[in-house]
Amino acid sequence: EMVVHSEHDVVIYSDSGNRYSARRLSMMGELRQAMQSDGELTLFYQPKLDLHTRQVVGVEALLRWTHPVHGNVPPDQFVVMAEHTGLIKPLTQWVLQRALRQLQHWQSQGLALGMAVNISARNLREAQFCEQLLAQLHAVQISPDTLTLELTETAVMCDQEVALRVLRHIREAGVQIAMDDFGVGHSSLSYLSQLPICELKIDKSFIFALDRQPDDTAIVRTTINMAHDLGLRVVAEGIESEQVCERLQALGCDLGQGYHIARPMPAEQLVAWLRTVRTES
Ligand code: C2E
Ligand code: MG
Ligand code: MG
Ligand code: MG
After folding, report:
1. Cα torsion angle, 239, 59, 219, 204, sign
2. Does residue 196 register a pLDDT over 70?
């Protein structure tokens, strides 16, 4: 990365040569501050459902940033900016710390939940990432196998050797690894089998219209069967209707997430929601 200071503007050129505006840069300064003062940044949690038993097995932590001027900033927007400015390292630490503390709290209340956290390609290039993660897990006395790290295909592909080494290390310690947004990247099936992953999350673009699009059904069926042959469990994200949910069940999909089941929500709301679904069954 190259930073160019001029009288009128500050611009940063990312690896790909994109120009970052002064406004975006100042937002990154504000994000740094938001991490220090509690309130603007929070985690929402979206339930993950076992499609065979319809029981909640865990949650995915999703970042929310309410900017004092710009309002809610979509996470995929500020996460990408954080990746290009190096802020992703403290941001991921922020998320992991809160998500693990929350998980510890829930587990101490007797809630048997797993926690999934999204991480970035950049995190896998940090030499200390694995050691820090294991220390954090140890500090909250959480069994590593109740944590799943979700990463996208590109995250692993851009610096394969280092990323693979870090991933293997993490996996050997018992932490689960999921491939997120599967199907929109470029991984081949043989490549997938080399990764130390436990879970495949089919991208929501294939799930939305599953009950109406024969092509999507073919893709999803093939992906589920292939993943099972590789010993992976399969998650469908973006389930927006009961029809799609039943279709996925029939196709043998293991887990599901989506607005039809529940939207991402604050921790307190999740506990109340869990109470309502657990008394229903
Ligand atoms: P993701 O990890 O693939 O998360 C799934 C996204 O789909 C979430 O968007 C979720 O709110 C949304 N979603 C879930 N069910 C449905 C549904 O039924 N319909 C539709 N239309 N959407 C659904 P969100 O929260 O805006 O997050 C977007 C992306 O931002 C995430 O995609 C992830 O890549 C990234 N992200 C979010 N939080 C974090 C974080 O803490 N760290 C990192 N590195 N990335 C994060
Ligand atoms: Mg995810
Ligand atoms: Mg996804
Ligand atoms: Mg995504």
Report:
1. positive
2. yes
State the Cα–Cα distance between residues 59 and 48, nearest whole angstrom.
5
User: Best of 45, 72, 76, 180 to mutate for ligand 1, by most ligand atoms within 8 A of CB?
Assistant: 76
Question: What would the pLDDT profile of 141-165 be if each residue is shown by its tens digit?
Answer: 999 999 999 998 776 666 678 888 9
Which ligand 1 atom is the nearest neighbour of the CA of 201? 3
pTM of the model: 0.92
Strand spans (E) along the chain: 2-5, 10-13, 19-20, 41-50, 55-67, 71-73, 114-118, 147-152, 176-182, 199-202, 233-236, 255-256
For residue 265, the 8-state DSSP code is B
DSSP per-residue letters across 211-258: TT-HHHHHHHHHHHHHHHHTT-EEEE----SHHHHHHHHHTT--EE-S
What is the C-alpha end-to-end distance of the chain, expressed in Å?
54
pLDDT, one tens digit per residue, over 208-257 is 999 999 999 999 999 999 999 999 999 999 999 999 999 999 999 999 99
User: Ligand 1 pocket by C-beta < 6 Å: which residues?
Assistant: 46, 62-63, 74-76, 79, 95, 118-120, 150, 180-181, 204, 237-240, 257-259, 264
Residue 142 CB partners (closer than 8 Å, separation 6+) = 100, 103, 104, 107
